[in-house]
Amino acid sequence: MQFNVRPYVCGALGRIDTVLLGKLTAAGPRVRPALQTDGAALFSSAPLPPYHRAGGSFAFSWGERKPPGLDAWMAVAETYETPGLVGDGERVTLHAGALGLVDVYYARLGEAVYFSSLIQPLLGLVPAEIDWAAWASIIQVTFPLGDATPYTAVKRLPGSSALVFEQGRLKTERRLPRWLRTEPYETWTSPAELLEILREVYKDYEGRRLLVPVSGGYDSRLLCSVAVAGGADVESWTTSPDDGTDTDIAFARAITRELGVHHRVITQDPADYPGDAQEVARRLEYLTPHHAWYAPFAKEVHRAGRVLVDGLAGGPLLKNFMVSGAALEATSQAERSAAVLSSLSLGAPSQPFLSPRALAWTEQAVREQFGAATSMLHGHRAELPLSVLHTRTVRGIARSAVNLVGPEASFAAPFIHPAFFDAALSVGVARKDKGRFYRELLHAADPRVAALPSTNVVKQPLRRVPLRSTAAPARVYAHQTLRVVAERVPGLLSEELHEVLRDGPDALTRFNGWNDRFWVRGLVLFGLWLSDFENDLPDVSLPF
Prior knowledge:
- The chain has 544 residues and is of the alpha+beta class.
- The chain has helices spanning 18-27, 73-80, 132-140, 178-181, 191-202, 218-229, 247-259, 273-283, 295-302, 314-319, 325-329, 333-344, 356-374, 383-397, 399-405, 418-426, 429-432, 436-445, 447-450, 472-488, 495-502, 514-532; strands spanning 9-14, 32-36, 40-44, 52-54, 57-61, 84-87, 91-95, 105-109, 112-116, 155-156, 161-166, 169-174, 210-211, 234-239, 262-266, 307-309, 411-412.
- It has a six-stranded antiparallel sheet, with helices on one face.
- The two termini are 37 Å apart.
């Protein structure tokens, strides 16, 4: 990972132990001091000037968008979606962005907090003890929930949260972001009005060369249509999401041809899949089994010299993505929460993957974590899309733009710009049901592009193509890694899965369904982590 655009940062606040701080700064990428005071220290891999400094006060941020001047930390977090460090001479505040897209990890030791953009450097200060609840979420939901990481002693600062050192004491502050402080009401924003807001958002990127990846879905064609209509210098690329159809590539060709945009297909080699999967897993610090398919694409983006325009958050904001009919029809908070969690979780595999006790414990742990992570949203008019945004979008899907592209190349996420986000959130979920509102929005942007086939509404038969993730090289890799899990933690896997593993790599060909594939990927990720940390994990005993 090369921190070319967004720097790597680390530091501490509180009663800092200089020996521990030295270990932290030596454990990650090379850094230089940006700030050193009695109660705070900040180091960065690139020059990091403060956006405010006067007398004993200071303010730093290290997200993609920079504040112009001093403001309350929550205003900075929700306007610019950036983490930062702010001090006024008496109080020092380390804060995340309002959604928490750019990670801040920390470990508390004594009366100080040590923080880092990456988890790994913090493991030089604290033991690598397994957080089983975090792994339960990674395996069943495909990402951790709340502040969890794979390690009990390392936490992630959630969105709209801060760590504060004041009057010799450390404390945590949690604030409601603006979309919860003032509950949005149905303003009957029209598609044309929302489109005009999106055009205004694009003005932030005027004069910059844009790369708008186009798939066959709604988000990318909307973003590309608006960029082209605004006269931007646009290229569009597409790659296979490894979903077994490559319909995205066929549909994207039609969209880019209609828009007159140069289109390129980034190909993938099945032989490279094991290496891609391992590289992505390690780079994402084992937080999700997603994104292996994105690795070749991200490497090309690093060399493109263009701003990647990503459709992050478009699905939950505009088309009720991951919001099921059961969630819409729920009559109680318990039913609503259970329906959203069911949509986010993997369905049952074709045969048991976990032992009965492991599965029961996992499901209970995930329910508890999901309830805690979404409790602030309960009863909110936009609870359903916000539940998806604050969990899956932030902790799972955003990794491709933020962590695979972000440090090396600039990325833009127009849908999370405050003006667009708030306007889209105010549109009621009933208007978005079954994609109706989104289709109106696309038609307002470009009716010819809106009429082209979409992966969101596929009516014709799909042409099946082989999956990289289930090809022979992937099966050998998966089998080797699953055996690590079977040997290191024998009580975790079901007897049925142990039997499959005894039959060799080709026995994994039976796991070709969507749910099966993701169960395999999650457990393979766990096995890679066990292998990589074999000498650092003192105990992997099951918690039940």
